[in-house]
């Protein structure tokens, strides 16, 4: 509704200005705002926020409203005004630029109020003042172009109207990105970059220092709201916004206190503020009053270079502030021009009068400003003052004004150089410089591209925006305590990939930090952990969850843990997958060495006993114990000891097959020999009874055949097992997460069970046979030793089963090897130790007479 009212008012002012009366123009209203004026062949308009305070008139609708009362002249902005005047005077004296054409100007104060700005714009394009002398309303319009308005909200409203008539509006300070929309603002140009680039510059700084948790504050106007909206949209791809607050343009106090409380409560250390100097001042004062320290402020170009805010009073809370600033320029001759102005009492040039009165605290006769009773005598020297007006060390907005005037001048110069027949308009015609229209200037202004006398290229892109180059400034305090705004870097949007350049050595950080501050909601999750977002909080706020066993994250801030592949496992820090430790019973570890030594010793011992038996094969002890079966038994025991070595070392297809086959056949051969020896003992005893001769049915050939038969059965079982589903090496990753148990897979459970079952069956038959024959006469007490050996064998293997099942990793194999060795040693010692003792240590008992004497119970 407000915009509609303003639009209607503006149209009324425009059309009332052009109302015809037989057919002359009628002045509907005398313009009463402060301004500067100088007549020229071509007039340029200017709108500046010279006064930063204004009192609106009381509207009663019963009488004509009083004019707005503007107050508090800003010396810095008045410098901008004089920069426009200086640029026009410089162009008028330049024979190479617009020769024979004199530029004039009419500049007004908008008092930082939109209604005043609209009234100023209407005066500029419609002539609402008494300077109109041509009653035919013909010729060049009152102004061809307007330099201003600096306030984005004002520029939006004014540009909408000017665009209807294609009157160019060249702003030096309105940076709202919305003004880049050529559909809505086709005749808008500016020498300040769009806020879209300012936002990019801020985000590049934030990303450069790794700040992912920031707060945002913006004024409640088009400038602030468009900027913060762009910031939120672009920043979401990198970080999170802790809070967004809005600085109101009216009734500020309560809202400002609330904003400061939000800043205190937030954990964000970096605060971005899009605001003008006037609007942010209250926030700065409240922050200082509450002594809010430990914050890194990032200032928009609207207030980053304000010497009023960058003061000793504010430095304790705002020291180290980083700001985006308009490019600074060094305008030669401007300083002298500023010092040379003199007041001349003229209603159309009353701004100089007001400036003089404010600067020196005096007043002219008939002045409306009452400061004191001291009269101005016009002999005061500006050079003796130091204000924002005389300070030319930071020419930023003033430099933009300078470029805006020169851009218009170069457009007019190109227009004047046009040759008929080569022009851009209908029938290749050119514009007449003496009767040029705004829309004709608009065409040339779009194509402006020149290098000014400072060596900087001035041009507009397709959106009417200036080349996006910013200075990066830093608030620093000198040794004398004076706050200095120092340029410490540059942002150049055209330098893609390297837009930001900073001189880190010149950077001053808030003493609370001492170095680059850290502003994150949650610290980065180190490798070995993953991010877990907190419910109901921004994505930058998260917890770091350690990766589970077998999972890793090898990057900072991983969102998930990756599972290691089968042969890999996570290291202790869960930061990388490492090969799992391969575990098997090795010849290198102590257990492997011990078992292999015991195995080799057992084999050697068996061979030693075999050698003794062969050497003493003709003695009664050897003969009485069936020497051939004893030899075969010792050979089989040797294989039993040696087969244990197949269980030690890294499993392979060959060793996996050998260990079970050799083990199965060796033990069957061993037990078959013992079983046949037991049968021989029983047969021999039965043959001593009258009328029996069983030994003829179980002679040497039958004994050999029985051993071969029993062994052949086991061999057939092994062959079937190996041909159907043989054992093979297996990497077992299920038993222990961090290890690979390298073992032999039995392949066929049926085959493995058959081998063990057959051994167990023979062992049971042998044990029962020996047990039944244990009470035979002493010289045939072989059965007692066999019974004892089988008792050991069965006890070992019965105990083996639970131990085998419960043993982890390589200890499973060690238990099996131990069972093989223990049962082998049991048979070896139980059967052969007594005989070796007699042969080697009691040779007197190794005689037939001694044996026969033991066999006769009566002796």
UniProtKB/TrEMBL annotation:
<keyword id="KW-0732">Signal</keyword>
<dbReference type="InterPro" id="IPR004073">
    <property type="entry name" value="GPCR_3_vmron_rcpt_2"/>
</dbReference>
<dbReference type="InterPro" id="IPR017978">
    <property type="entry name" value="GPCR_3_C"/>
</dbReference>
<keyword id="KW-0807">Transducer</keyword>
<comment type="similarity">
    <text>Belongs to the G-protein coupled receptor 3 family.</text>
</comment>
<dbReference type="Pfam" id="PF07562">
    <property type="entry name" value="NCD3G"/>
</dbReference>
<dbReference type="Pfam" id="PF00003">
    <property type="entry name" value="7tm_3"/>
</dbReference>
<dbReference type="Pfam" id="PF01094">
    <property type="entry name" value="ANF_receptor"/>
</dbReference>
<keyword id="KW-0472">Membrane</keyword>
<keyword id="KW-1003">Cell membrane</keyword>
<dbReference type="InterPro" id="IPR001828">
    <property type="entry name" value="ANF_lig-bd_rcpt"/>
</dbReference>
<keyword id="KW-1133">Transmembrane helix</keyword>
<protein>
    <recommendedName>
        <fullName>G-protein coupled receptors family 3 profile domain-containing protein</fullName>
    </recommendedName>
</protein>
<feature type="transmembrane region" description="Helical">
    <location>
        <begin position="662"/>
        <end position="685"/>
    </location>
</feature>
<feature type="domain" description="G-protein coupled receptors family 3 profile">
    <location>
        <begin position="591"/>
        <end position="855"/>
    </location>
</feature>
<keyword id="KW-0812">Transmembrane</keyword>
<feature type="transmembrane region" description="Helical">
    <location>
        <begin position="755"/>
        <end position="773"/>
    </location>
</feature>
<dbReference type="InterPro" id="IPR017979">
    <property type="entry name" value="GPCR_3_CS"/>
</dbReference>
<feature type="signal peptide">
    <location>
        <begin position="1"/>
        <end position="19"/>
    </location>
</feature>
<dbReference type="InterPro" id="IPR038550">
    <property type="entry name" value="GPCR_3_9-Cys_sf"/>
</dbReference>
<keyword id="KW-0297">G-protein coupled receptor</keyword>
<feature type="transmembrane region" description="Helical">
    <location>
        <begin position="590"/>
        <end position="616"/>
    </location>
</feature>
<feature type="transmembrane region" description="Helical">
    <location>
        <begin position="628"/>
        <end position="650"/>
    </location>
</feature>
<dbReference type="GO" id="GO:0004930">
    <property type="term" value="F:G protein-coupled receptor activity"/>
</dbReference>
<dbReference type="InterPro" id="IPR000337">
    <property type="entry name" value="GPCR_3"/>
</dbReference>
<dbReference type="GO" id="GO:0005886">
    <property type="term" value="C:plasma membrane"/>
</dbReference>
<dbReference type="InterPro" id="IPR028082">
    <property type="entry name" value="Peripla_BP_I"/>
</dbReference>
<feature type="transmembrane region" description="Helical">
    <location>
        <begin position="817"/>
        <end position="840"/>
    </location>
</feature>
<feature type="transmembrane region" description="Helical">
    <location>
        <begin position="785"/>
        <end position="805"/>
    </location>
</feature>
<feature type="transmembrane region" description="Helical">
    <location>
        <begin position="706"/>
        <end position="724"/>
    </location>
</feature>
<keyword id="KW-0675">Receptor</keyword>
<dbReference type="InterPro" id="IPR000068">
    <property type="entry name" value="GPCR_3_Ca_sens_rcpt-rel"/>
</dbReference>
<keyword id="KW-0325">Glycoprotein</keyword>
<dbReference type="InterPro" id="IPR011500">
    <property type="entry name" value="GPCR_3_9-Cys_dom"/>
</dbReference>
């Amino acid at each position: 509704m407000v915009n509609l009212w303003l639009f209607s008012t503006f149209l009324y002012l425009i059309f009332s200005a052009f109302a015809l009366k037989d057919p002359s123009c009628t002045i509907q209203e005398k313009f009463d705002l402060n301004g500067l004026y100088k007549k020229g062949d071509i007039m340029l308009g200017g709108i500046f926020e010279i006064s930063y305070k204004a009192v609106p008139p009381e509207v009663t609708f019963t009488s004509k409203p009083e004019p707005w009362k503007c107050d508090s002249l800003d010396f810095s902005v008045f410098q901008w005004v004089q920069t426009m005047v200086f640029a026009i005077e410089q162009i008028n004296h330049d024979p190479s630029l617009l020769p024979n054409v004199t530029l004039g100007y009419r500049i007004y104060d908008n008092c930082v109020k939109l209604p005043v700005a609209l009234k100023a714009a209407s005066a500029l394009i419609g002539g609402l003042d008494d300077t109109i002398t041509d009653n035919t309303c013909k010729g060049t319009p009152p102004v061809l172009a307007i330099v201003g308005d600096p306030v984005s909200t004002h520029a939006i409203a004014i540009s909408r109207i000017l665009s209807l008539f294609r009157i160019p509006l060249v702003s030096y300070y309105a940076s709202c990105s919305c003004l880049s929309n050529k559909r809505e603002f086709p005749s808008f140009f500016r020498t300040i970059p769009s806020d879209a680039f300012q936002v990019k510059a801020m985000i590049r700084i934030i990303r450069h220092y790794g700040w992912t948790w920031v707060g945002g504050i913006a004024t409640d106007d088009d400038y602030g709201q468009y900027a913060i909206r762009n910031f939120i949209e672009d920043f979401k791809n990198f970080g999170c916004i802790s809070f967004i607050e809005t600085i109101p343009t009216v009734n500020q106090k309560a809202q400002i206190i609330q904003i400061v409380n939000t800043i205190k409560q937030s954990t964000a250390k970096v605060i971005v503020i899009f605001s003008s100097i006037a609007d942010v001042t209250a926030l700065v004062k409240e922050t200082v009053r509450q002594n809010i320290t430990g914050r890194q402020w990032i200032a928009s170009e609207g207030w980053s270079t304000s010497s009023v805010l960058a003061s000793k009073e504010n430095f304790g809370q705002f020291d180290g502030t980083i700001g985006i600033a308009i490019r600074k320029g060094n305008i030669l001759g401007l300083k002298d021009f500023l010092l040379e102005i003199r007041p001349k009492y003229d209603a159309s040039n009353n701004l100089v009068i007001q400036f003089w009165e404010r600067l020196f605290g005096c007043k002219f006769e008939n002045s409306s400003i009452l400061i004191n009773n001291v009269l101005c005598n016009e002999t005061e020297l500006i050079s003796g003052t130091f204000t924002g007006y005389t300070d030319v060390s930071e020419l930023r907005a003033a430099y933009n004004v300078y470029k805006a005037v020169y851009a218009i001048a170069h457009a007019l110069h190109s227009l004047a150089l046009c040759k008929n027949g080569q022009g851009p308009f209908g029938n290749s015609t050119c514009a007449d410089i003496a009767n040029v229209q705004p829309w004709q200037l608009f065409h040339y202004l779009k194509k402006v591209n020149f290098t000014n006398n400072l060596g900087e290229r001035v041009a507009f892109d397709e959106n009417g925006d200036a080349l996006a180059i910013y200075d990066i400034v830093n608030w620093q305090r000198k040794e004398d305590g004076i706050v200095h705004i120092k340029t410490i870097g540059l942002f150049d949007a055209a330098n893609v990939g390297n837009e930001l350049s900073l001189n880190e050595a010149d950077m001053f950080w808030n003493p609370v930090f001492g170095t680059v501050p850290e502003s994150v909601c949650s610290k980065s999750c180190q490798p070995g952990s993953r991010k877990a977002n907190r419910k109901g909080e921004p994505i930058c706020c998260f917890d770091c969850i350690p990766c589970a066993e077998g999972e890793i994250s090898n990057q900072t801030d991983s969102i998930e843990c990756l599972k290691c592949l089968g042969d890999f496992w996570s290291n202790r820090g869960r930061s990388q997958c490492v090969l799992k430790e391969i575990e098997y019973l090795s010849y290198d570890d102590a257990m492997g060495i011990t078992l292999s030594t015991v195995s080799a010793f057992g084999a050697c011992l068996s061979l030693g006993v075999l050698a003794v038996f062969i050497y003493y094969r003709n003695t009664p002890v050897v003969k009485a114990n069936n020497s051939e079966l004893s030899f075969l038994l010792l050979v089989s025991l040797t294989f039993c000891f040696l087969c244990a070595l197949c269980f030690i070392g890294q499993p392979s297809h060959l060793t996996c097959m050998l260990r079970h086959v050799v083990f199965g056949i060796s033990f069957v051969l061993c037990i078959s020999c013992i079983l046949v020896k037991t049968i021989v003992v029983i047969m021999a005893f039965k043959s001593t009874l009258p009328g029996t001769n069983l030994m003829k049915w179980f002679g040497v050939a039958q004994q050999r055949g029985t051993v071969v038969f029993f062994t052949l059965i086991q061999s057939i079982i092994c062959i079937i097992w190996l041909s159907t589903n043989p054992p093979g090496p297996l990497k077992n990753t299920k038993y222990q997460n961090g290890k690979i148990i390298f073992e032999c897979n039995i392949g066929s459970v049926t085959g493995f069970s058959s081998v063990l079952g057959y051994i167990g069956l023979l062992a049971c038959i042998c044990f029962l046979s020996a047990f039944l024959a244990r009470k035979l006469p002493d010289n045939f007490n072989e059965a007692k030793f066999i019974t004892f050996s089988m008792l050991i064998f069965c006890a070992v293997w019965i105990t083996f089963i639970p131990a085998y099942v419960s043993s982890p990793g390589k200890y499973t194999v060690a238990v099996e090897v131990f069972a093989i060795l223990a049962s082998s040693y049991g048979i070896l010692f139980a059967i052969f130790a007594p005989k070796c003792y007699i042969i080697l240590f009691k040779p007197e008992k190794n005689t037939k007479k001694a044996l026969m004497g033991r066999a006769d119970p009566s002796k």
